[in-house]
Amino acid sequence: MRKPYQIWRDRRGRLSPLRITTLAALLVPVAIAVHAYATTGFGARPLNDLIHRTGYWCLIFLAASLAVTPLRAIARYGALIDVRRMLGVGAFAYAAAHLALYVADQRYDLGKVASEIALRLYLTIGFTAWLGMAALAVTSTDAMVRRLGAVRWRRLHQIVYVVSLLALIHFFQQTKADVSVPVFVAGLFVWLAGYRLIAARRHARGPLPTALIAALTFGAALLTFAGEAIGIAIAYRVSPLTVLRSAFDFSFDIRPGWYVLAAGLAVTLIDLLRAAFAAQPRATAADQAGSASSGGRSFVPRQRP
Ligand code: HEM
Question: What residue ranges line ligand 1, CB within 6 angstroms?
Fold first, then answer.
């Protein structure tokens, strides 16, 4: 039997390459930060630098946890469900570090922290997202799933979409000049939420048809281009069409809409390849049962054998 802390082992106690890889991925931002510290340092405001790093990676791992459900269906790789909870709890660990660093930046003056959260809208929104993530993390254990019951637990975990939206708004609000990164992350969330909505409407348990995945990809990319163009047009009082036209000028930089398109097309390609080469889906009967009962969850505990 595996010990509770041995998260690199699967439920049967065997070493799990998938879990080890996920754990390594969750630690990559720490390695990047250590490398930055050793080479360039964290700049004039080291705590602020770390606040930015943790906030960014929290959002990335949140997106990764949401990507598990579509990816396991599209890649016909049911075992992926095993790391969804790990990614979700990992995202919360970065959120916890983010808040702790903010408290440290305020010299541990909790009264000041509370009043800043109450007075600054972007912090109020960030803190609301944080509370939502805390609720998801606390209820991610098997014991909590049993206590809440599957239906109530699943309903509670649907707040992950509200949490993501609030976190994105917080990201946009505190980004001063270049909004490319938040726009790109927002585009990814549009794709993920879109997939979930379409799959729910069609009661789909397996992958969506390839044409739909491709259409969703083009839709998410177009929304990303349009959203960015409208945002820039409002901020700088220029025509959104001028901004849209500049998306085809690759000499300056590549607009986030293209990255969203590339990511979606990569997923579409995975679907095509898996459909062509895997006549038999790789998901086991147990995985199928897991998928049926875990439909819209984010931090999903693995299914019992
Ligand atoms: C789950 C909740 C949260 C998420 C996902 C999140 C995410 C982020 C992201 C992505 C950034 C920008 C990183 C970058 O520029 O690369 C950021 C910045 C920041 N966040 Fe959060 N955040 C959350 C909650 C909070 C909370 C609760 C606080 C404090 C009460 C907070 C305070 C800040 C501050 C101070 C900054 C930097 C602002 C600046 O330099 O002007 N965040 N956050």
Answer: 48, 51-52, 55-56, 58-59, 95, 98-99, 102, 117, 123, 126-127, 129-130, 133, 167, 170-171, 174-175
Task: Indicate yes or no: pTM above 0.85.
Answer: yes
CA gap 24, 40 in Å, rounded = 23
Q: How distant, in Å, are the alpha carbons of 43, 57, 69, 248 from that of 225?
A: 33, 23, 26, 11
SS3 9: strand
For 258-269, the pLDDT digits (tens) are 999 999 999 999
Nearest CA to ligand 1 atom 34: 51
Which ranges in the chain belong to alpha helices (H)? Answer: 17-39, 46-74, 84-105, 110-119, 121-138, 142-148, 150-157, 160-174, 180-201, 210-236, 240-246, 256-277, 285-294
* Residue found by looking up tokens 């943790």 in the block: 54
Q: Separation of 59 CA from ligand 1 center, angstroms?
A: 10
Phi (first) and psi of residue 9, to 5 degrees: -105, 150
CA of 170 to the centre of ligand 1 (A): 7
Closest CA to 164 of 133, 200, 120: 133
Span 57-113, pLDDT tens digits: 999 999 999 999 999 999 999 889 989 999 999 999 999 999 999 999 999 999 999
In the 8-state DSSP scheme, what is residue 4? T
The amino acid that residue 208 corresponds to is L
Q: Give the separation between CA 151 and CA 8, rounded to whole angstroms.
A: 29
Predicted pLDDT at 70: 95
Residue 282 sits at φ, ψ, to 5 deg, of -75, -20
Centroid of ligand 1 to alpha carbon of 132 (angstroms)? 15
Q: Two tokens at 70?
A: 């579509």
User: What are the tokens at 298?
Assistant: 């984010």
Judge contact between 94 and 58, C-beta under 8 A.
yes
